[in-house]
């Protein structure tokens, strides 16, 4: 029998590369499938409530008009939830292929503007602890969105009249921003998962605090598109501290 000639090096490398591509394509398809199925599941819950109340009103609304206001309130709430969910899903999918422009800007100024805009609707006392000027290399809109979304989470999950501190400082060739609250905190086992799409702590669900579980996934996406990273650690003496790491501009002449 003739020996099978060994494939030339280039062919072997090409076929390995091809296999790797196929593998990552497969993983992408699995992830997309999971996303579509999670999204449908999340949309189905409010839709079921809406349809239930429509059916109730159809059947009993005429004889029992006293049912109408409550049912309408549920329909209104649940359709609002669906609208928020759809908007967040669209925001996420737009970001899938997005590229954002990064530029140098003063994040201390941005944080002060965000705080003065958000303070009137916040239950907490917002405090900014930053140098007068702190330059970063990122997308300003993304960082603004991220800060607003962390402040609005604090507003939902943290007791009123506590202090929420936004701080920032240079660390090596990076800048570290943090949003620290004095709320219930996030258990170690869930610290990475809170950034996953649709993930919510059971406590938030059981206390019926409204949310989609997409806020932190969007925030993480925005920060990574900006070339940064985000994580959450325990705050001292209690609560959570969301830490955002951003690049600092190279030249210190700024
Ligand atoms: P949503 O607020 O819509 O549920 P997020 O992605 O913004 O979605 O947050 C995911 C989960 O992380 C929340 O449901 C909540 O359980 C938890 N979480 C977020 N921020 C805080 C916080 N500051 N303190 C405690 N838990 C938080």
Automatic annotation (TrEMBL):
Q: Per UniProt, which keywords does this protein have?
A: Kinase, Membrane, Phosphoprotein, Transferase, Transmembrane, Transmembrane helix, Two-component regulatory system
Q: What class of enzyme is it?
A: transferase
Gene Ontology MF, one? phosphorelay sensor kinase activity
Domain (Histidine kinase): give its ranges.
Answer: 38-250
Q: Which domain of life is it from?
A: Bacteria
Report the EC number(s), separated by commas if there are several. Answer: 2.7.13.3
Cellular location(s) = Membrane
Q: Which reaction does it catalyse?
A: ATP + protein L-histidine = ADP + protein N-phospho-L-histidine
A cellular-component GO term for this protein: plasma membrane
Put simply, this protein is called histidine kinase
Q: Which organism is it from?
A: Lacticaseibacillus camelliae DSM 22697 = JCM 13995
């Amino acid at each position: 029998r003739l020996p099978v000639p060994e494939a030339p090096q280039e062919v072997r490398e090409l076929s390995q590369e091809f296999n790797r591509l196929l593998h990552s394509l497969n993983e992408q398809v699995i992830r997309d499938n999971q996303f579509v199925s999670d999204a449908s599941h999340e949309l189905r819950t409010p839709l079921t409530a809406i349809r239930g109340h429509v059916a109730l009103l159809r059947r009993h609304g005429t004889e029992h008009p006293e049912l109408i206001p409550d049912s309408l309130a549920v329909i209104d709430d649940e359709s609002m939830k669906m609208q928020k969910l759809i908007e967040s899903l669209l925001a996420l999918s737009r970001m899938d292929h997005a590229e954002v422009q990064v530029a140098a800007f003063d994040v201390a100024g941005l944080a002060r503007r965000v705080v003065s805009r958000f303070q009137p609707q916040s239950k907490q006392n917002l405090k900014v602890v930053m140098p007068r000027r702190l330059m970063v290399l990122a997308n300003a809109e993304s960082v603004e969105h991220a800060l607003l979304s962390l402040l609005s989470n604090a507003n939902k999950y943290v007791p009123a009249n506590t202090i929420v501190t936004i701080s920032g400082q240079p660390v090596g060739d990076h800048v570290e921003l943090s949003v620290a609250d004095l709320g219930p905190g996030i258990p170690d086992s869930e610290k990475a998962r809170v950034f996953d799409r649709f993930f919510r702590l059971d406590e938030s669900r059981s206390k019926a605090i409204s949310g989609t579980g997409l806020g932190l996934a969007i925030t993480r996406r925005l920060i990574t598109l900006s070339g940064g990273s985000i994580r959450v650690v325990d705050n001292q003496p209690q609560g959570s501290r969301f830490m955002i790491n951003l690049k600092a501009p190279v030249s210190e002449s700024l």
